[in-house]
Design brief:
By secondary structure, this protein is α/β, with parallel strands linked by helices. It folds into three domains: 7-173, P-loop containing nucleotide triphosphate hydrolases (Rossmann fold), CATH 3.40.50.300; 186-414, Metallo-dependent phosphatases (Purple Acid Phosphatase, chain A, domain 2); 486-561, no CATH class. 33% of the residues lie in helices and 19% in strands. The protein contains 18 helices and 26 strands.
């Protein structure tokens, strides 16, 4: 008899147990999952009605169960639903819940003999109902068992005997996007678009040793660093096949990781025989590939097909995707997540160039992970809410940019020429109202970022907690009396008072101050007269360009007195 294979369950998923009453679902759940992972319909009937068998409370119980399941899935926690779930109508909202949170739904079916289920129920004082109940549940189950995959369950495991249940084991499978144990260091490279010469120059500037170019490339870094390509390796540029060959070799040798771009996916469809219009530079890549062998084309197609939508790395501190990835999508697996990672988000409008207007998701990002992405060419790579786009339009005559992680250092090489004319200018035109509004939106403070109790991690002092009443007072002062917050780069500290003097006649005395410095290893103290009036900080810019670049202020004086 062959050994029973483990039941594969994605590490982040919604596991739905399916089986008639008495089939052993609760026992199975306790044997294979943490108590905190299991949400039992019986338990929530007891929570809302003080009676686990009160069927009249089922609607409220399942409402509470689904609410808690949603909170767990939103937090990235595997969740197990322990209920009969024998009817499609009972399973449908659970599949919808999994889709809402971009996790995979899993069905584990305990299809036990009716007599066994009834015998088990007969031995439980709280389950004294006739055999017709189990008979009806079993009939419902077997009628819909073959349709579980059509209902949306990505994994379906059926256990048909007590022996199979006893021998079952669970294998938690990490999602392909989950590389949290991979801490780098990385050199994250923006959209290459066939600019092979610039890619080689950039890799060399980053310290990589390259050999065998271009036909049999090998790359390594003496310090063990790895490249991480953000996709769009192909199209528009002069040497897309050579870029593919180098990236494929680096990924195969472990010297690089890669996520797909929308141009790469479009090329894959064409190579696999799909009806794809050769536009937006694809026609150039196809012409260049005519000189390559069928074997190379097949390998390139397999390479692109095997790329994962995005990666979460370094204990969740770094996320990379071609077009970015919102916090709710990080580490998840669904069609919607992949679409966002490839194409980003649009407003549904088109601009005067006929291109979709992109929604600035980064302006609302508040996640823990630093998100590095490309897709939307820009003249300068700038940080916004722990996100940065490093597609600096090399193929359009800009530059090829890399972000060194964890150092957060930008390295770029200039394009040797304009290889492809952009449909619209990379830099916004003077007087473009949308450019002004984009800058304005980025500088509008979100009230939820500054009110209530806040915890801020600082570089020098670690975690600093701001109490709600202090935040409210600061917000009041800032909103009424402060200058534009963009100018406030330095707030002078106030002096801390000394300990209360032991001399009963005075509140403070220099001896306590000198004692404090002495205890902290300061052997020499310079005493100066302290100016007790208000202090002023002058911020002065060299010119208007410096003001706009550093403070994102378009008009007004070249400095302020704060």
């Amino acid at each position: 008899m062959s050994e029973q294979k483990p039941l594969v369950v994605p590490a982040l998923s919604l596991v739905v147990l399916v089986g008639a009453s008495g089939s052993g679902k609760s026992t199975f759940a306790r044997a294979h999952f943490k108590p905190t992972e299991i949400l039992s319909s019986d338990h929530y009937r007891g929570v809302v009605a003080d009676d686990e068998n009160d069927q009249a409370a089922s609607a409220d119980a399942f409402e509470v169960l689904r609410f808690i399941a949603g909170k767990r899935l939103a937090a990235g926690r595997l969740t197990v639903i322990d209920a009969t779930n024998v009817q499609p109508d009972a399973r449908r909202p659970l599949v919808a819940l999994a889709r809402e949170h971009h996790v995979l739904p899993v069905a584990i079916v305990l299809d036990m003999p009716e007599k066994l289920c009834h015998a088990r129920n007969a031995g439980r004082p709280d389950r004294q109902f006739g055999p017709h109940v189990v008979r009806g549940q079993s009939r419902e189950l077997r009628r819909s068992l073959k349709d579980l995959r059509h209902e949306g369950f990505r994994y379906v495991h059926v256990l048909s005997s007590p022996e199979e249940v006893a021998a079952a084991t669970i294998e938690r499978q990490r999602l392909w996007t989950d590389r949290r144990d991979d801490r780098g260091p990385f050199d994250i490279i923006g959209d290459v678009h066939g600019c092979f010469d610039e890619l080689v120059e950039l890799l060399e500037a980053l310290g990589y040793r390259l050999e065998g170019l271009p036909d049999a490339p090998r790359a390594s870094h003496p310090e063990g660093r790895r490249a991480l390509f953000l996709g769009d390796l192909v199209d528009r540029g002069p040497r897309s096949p050579d870029v593919l060959r180098l990236a494929m070799a680096m990924v195969a040798s472990g010297a690089a990781l890669c996520v797909p771009g929308n141009h790469d996916v479009k090329l894959l469809k064409k190579l696999r025989g799909r009806d794809v219009k050769p536009t937006h530079g694809l026609e150039l890549t196809l012409a260049q590939l005519e000189a390559e062998t069928d074997e190379f084309k097949a390998k390139a197609a397999d390479f692109i097909d095997g790329l994962v939508s995005h990666y979460v790395l370094d204990d969740g501190n770094l996320a990379v995707a071609h077009a970015g990835v919102k916090e709710a999508f990080q580490g998840r697996g669904s069609g919607a997540v992949r679409e966002f990672c490839l194409y980003g988000e649009t407003t549904g409008e088109t601009d005067e160039y006929g291109l979709p207007v992109r929604y600035n998701w980064a302006s609302e990002y508040r996640g823990k992970a630093m998100v590095v992405y490309g897709h939307t060419p820009t003249t300068v790579a700038e940080w916004e809410n722990r996100t940065i786009c490093i597609d600096t339009g090399c193929v359009f005559g800009g530059a090829l940019t890399a972000l060194r992680y964890p150092e957060r250092e930008l390295v770029e090489v200039k394009a040797r020429r304009v290889y492809y004319e952009p449909k619209k200018p990379l830099a916004p035109l003077a007087g473009d109202p949308r450019a002004a509004s984009r800058g304005q939106d980025a500088d509008v403070l979100d009230i939820d970022d500054v009110r209530g109790r806040r915890a801020i991690r600082t570089r020098i002092h670690g975690m600093v907690t701001i109490r709600e009443e202090n935040a409210a007072a600061a917000l009041e002062a800032m909103s009424r009396f402060a200058v534009d917050p963009r100018w406030l780069i330095y707030l002078p500290p106030t002096m801390s008072p000394t300990e209360t003097s032991k001399d009963g006649g005075v509140l403070e005395h220099p001896r306590e101050a000198f004692a404090y410095f002495r205890q902290n290893g300061v052997g020499r103290v310079v005493c100066e007269e302290k100016h007790m009036g208000s202090r002023a900080v002058l911020v002065v810019c060299r010119d208007e360009a410096a003001r706009k670049r550093r403070f994102r202020v378009d008009e007004g004086p070249l400095g302020v007195c704060t």
